[in-house]
DNA sequence: CGCGATTTTGAGAGCCGTCAAGATACGTGG
DNA sequence: CCACGTATCTTGACGGCTCTCAAAATCGCG
């Protein structure tokens, strides 16, 4: 299909309040940097775990997840990519990927050539800094996730991810009130939290029984966000404006 | 104490084969960037979990660990910092820290002012790229750690960290044959792996009984590295040369 | 020599995993 | 519109890995 090129300076995402404003010169540089757009279907691989993709992506629309697997098949979901996320930075830096990325919903990706990243560092220090910013953000999310999997109980973990993902979606305007179109299955949650599917299901039931949330089909509703936060012992989150490439 | 300034261009670390070579201009820039040196004692905090340190550090000597804690005191160790590691990048980028760092051994740190990081991005794209490289490396280590804590059994986790840390130390020339001066306590290992101290101890005993390793006092000896790797289902590691600031 | 930190071992409990079976939902083809 | 297959969700029973509690041994150090 012929990619419908959206001009970056007209990109609706740059106008969202959760992203920092860009200067005209930055926008036009990114535009020249952009190779095209890519649409992928749910379940489709965006990067394979062993492969060495020559591309760097920005998420324009949809959800994806990053994961690693052990030789015997056990899978750990590392993080989720939502609009504004960068995919494939590790490959750009190391020339090799050590994790896979798979789409959860229909997605629209902005494609960059990873060779060009060097010209970005040479020509636009402010954008180079943004790339580092995004890498550091991913690191912080992983820190928080690791704290969960290592120290929290099953109930705490579940409360934490759901609370966390809801807030990330909310920042991006994907929610309506306390409602969210939530594309994960319970298996995804289990692989995210290091729990079995069965135990995830039973723990979920307890959270529902306690009126914290409801989840039917793809519709997730958070009825007691503060309760979830308390259960998870989570800190309030700081909502800084972030870069969007 | 008056910091004994080692000139970067004479810094012994830059000559190690695991680090990339730097150009004269890069070295002299880093030198101007350097504020001084800091020595810290074992157990001393380098960055506090809530604090907002104005500094960015490079490890010249010694071991430290990064951690997060829950309000009720449970602690998760996120990663270890060895010579060549960067400490405080998140603070430089976000103006806030979300984890603490504590020294395990006597350390020597190279101190930079985090305000200057911007001039680095403007003046030296190659060094800016190096900062991103290091951030992406930390991300990859966290990915691997999360896979461990989420999916591996106690025995597999223990085999994996010990194997992993031994190799990192080996790269840096801190080992002698299969011997390593290992500064962690079993409590550190437990908090790293998300296990209780007691279970960590018992699992360690099994690895010793199987002749995989021995550990007396601070002396760790790996007798069967390949066995550890097999138990952990770990991939061989790629030893790319990496930047050192 | 004595005290605190660390390591070690045993006993019992509980959180969570595995196994198994059914229920529900959804897309496809007849 | 119904039959059917696949994916997902749900629930119960049972087992085991890991936790907590407790106490003793060992080490490091002033």
Q: How would you describe this structure to a colleague?
A:
By secondary structure, chain A is of the alpha+beta class. Helix content of chain A is 40%, strand content 23%. Chain A has helices at 24-33, 89-94, 117-123, 125-151, 154-171, 186-193, 197-209, 225-232, and strands at 34-40, 45-47, 55-61, 64-69, 75-81, 86-87, 100-103, 107-113, 175-176, 179-181, 213-216, 219-222. The two termini of chain A are 24 Å apart. The interface between A and B is large, with 48 and 48 residues.
Features:
four-stranded antiparallel beta sheet; 245 residues; alpha+beta; 23% strand; homodimer; DNA-binding
Summarize the structure.
Two copies of one chain form a homodimer. Chain A has 245 residues and is α+β, with helices and mostly antiparallel strands. Chain A has helices spanning 24-33, 89-94, 117-123, 125-151, 154-171, 186-193, 197-209, 225-232; strands at 34-40, 45-47, 55-61, 64-69, 75-81, 86-87, 100-103, 107-113, 175-176, 179-181, 213-216, 219-222.
């Amino acid at each position: 299909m012929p990619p419908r090129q959206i001009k970056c300076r007209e990109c609706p995402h740059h106008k969202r309040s959760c992203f920092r404003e860009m200067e005209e010169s930055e926008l036009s540089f990114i535009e020249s940097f952009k190779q095209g757009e890519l649409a992928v279907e749910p379940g489709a691989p965006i990067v394979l775990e062993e492969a060495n993709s020559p591309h760097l992506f920005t998420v324009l629309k949809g959800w994806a997840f990053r994961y690693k697997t052990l030789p015997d098949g056990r899978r750990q979901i590392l993080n989720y990519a939502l609009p504004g996320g960068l995919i494939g930075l590790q490959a750009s830096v190391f020339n090799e990927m050590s994790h896979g990325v798979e789409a959860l919903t229909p997605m629209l990706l902005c494609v960059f050539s990873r060779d060009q990243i060097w010209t970005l560092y040479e020509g636009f220090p402010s954008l180079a800094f943004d790339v580092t910013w995004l890498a550091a953000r991913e690191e912080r999310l992983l820190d928080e996730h690791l704290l969960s999997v290592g120290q929290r109980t099953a109930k705490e973990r579940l409360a934490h991810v759901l609370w966390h993902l809801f807030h990330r979606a909310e920042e991006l305007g994907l929610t309506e009130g306390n409602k969210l179109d939530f594309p994960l299955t319970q298996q995804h949650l289990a692989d995210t939290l290091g729990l079995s599917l069965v135990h995830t299901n039973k723990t979920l039931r307890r959270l529902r029984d306690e009126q914290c949330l409801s989840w039917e089909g793809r519709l997730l509703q958070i009825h007691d966000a503060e309760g979830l936060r308390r259960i998870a012992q989570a800190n309030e989150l700081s909502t800084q404006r972030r870069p969007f490439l």
